[in-house]
C-alpha cells in the first residue's frame, strides 16, 4: 500500500508515520527528514535549502521530487511507502503519480489529519522549546502555515476528485490519533 499522510505543519505527520512503520513495516519517506539530513551533512542540496527551510518557505519542487525518486526502489522492495510531507504542491502530486505509474503502482489512500491552528502553534512552540528546530520559531511557523494554505491545501480537491481522502481527527493524543488512522485504513484494500 502507498499512503500519503497529509496535514498542516505540526499536525502529527512525522509522529504518525513512525508509528505506521512500526505497525506495518512500510518505508517512511519524509522529505523534511531528508532535507534536514542533507543540511546536517553539508551537502549541496543542504546548502541550497538551509535558508529556505529556516524561513518556513517550500523548497523547489525539482529538489524534493528527485529526493523521493531516489528512494522509491526501497519502498517498492518493502511493499509500500508512507509519504510524509510529500507531496506539498500539485506539481509534486502529479510527479509522484507519474513516478509510481512507471513502476505499476499508485497512491492508495490519503490520510488527512485535522488539527486546528491554535493546537498547531502550541505543538510547534513546544517542539521549539524542546528541540530548537530553527523553522519552529513563531515567525517561520506563520510562513509555513501560509505556504500550507496557499500551496498545499489545493491538493485536497486533486485527491478528493480521485476519492482517496480519509479525514481523521488529529486533535487527540498520539495514541488516539493512531487508533483513528488504523480504523480508517481498515477499509482500504491492500
Ligand atoms: P516537515 O519536516 O515535513 O515539517 P512539518 O510539516 O512541521 O511536519 P513534522 O513531521 O515535522 O511535524 P509533525 O506534524 O509530525 O518539513 C519541514 C520543512 O521542509 C518545510 O517547511 C519545507 O521548507 C521543507 N519541505 C519538506 N517537504 C517539502 C516538500 N515536499 N516540498 C517543499 N518543501 C518541503 O509534529 C509536530 C509536533 O507536534 C511534534 O513536536 C510532535 O511531538 C507533536 N505532536 C504530534 N502529534 C501530536 C499529538 N497527537 N498531540 C500532541 N502533540 C503532537
Characterise the protein shown here.
This protein has helices at 13-24, 31-41, 44-55, 61-78, 90-102, 117-131, 138-152, 155-160, 174-185, and strands spanning 3-6, 27-30, 81-84, 109-114, 165-169. It has 190 residues and is α/β, with parallel strands linked by helices. It is globular and about 40 Å long. The longest helix has 18 residues, at 61-78. The mean pLDDT is 96. Helix 4 packs parallel to helix 5 (90-102). It has one domain (3-179): P-loop containing nucleotide triphosphate hydrolases (Rossmann fold). The relative contact order is 0.20. It has nine helices and five strands. It has a five-stranded parallel β-sheet. The protein binds BIS(adenosine)-5'-tetraphosphate. Residues 9-15, 31-32, 35, 52-53, 56-59, 64, 85-86, 88, 92, 123, 127, 135, 144, 173-174, 177 line the site of BIS(adenosine)-5'-tetraphosphate.
Q: How many helices does DSSP assign?
A: 9
Number of DSSP-assigned strands = 5
Spatial strand sequence of the major β-sheet: 2-3-1-4-5
Question: Main beta sheet: strand number and arrangement?
Answer: 5 strands, parallel
Estimated structural class: alpha/beta
- Percentage beta strand: 5-15%
User: What's the structural domain tally?
Assistant: 1
CATH class: Alpha Beta
Residues in helix, % = 55-70%
Proper CATH architecture: 3-Layer(aba) Sandwich
Kindly provide the radius of gyration, computed on alpha-carbon positions and rounded to a whole number of angstroms: 16 Å
Mean pLDDT: 96
- Element order: H for helix, E for strand: EHEHHHEHEHHHEH
The N- and C-terminal alpha carbons lie at a distance of 5 Å
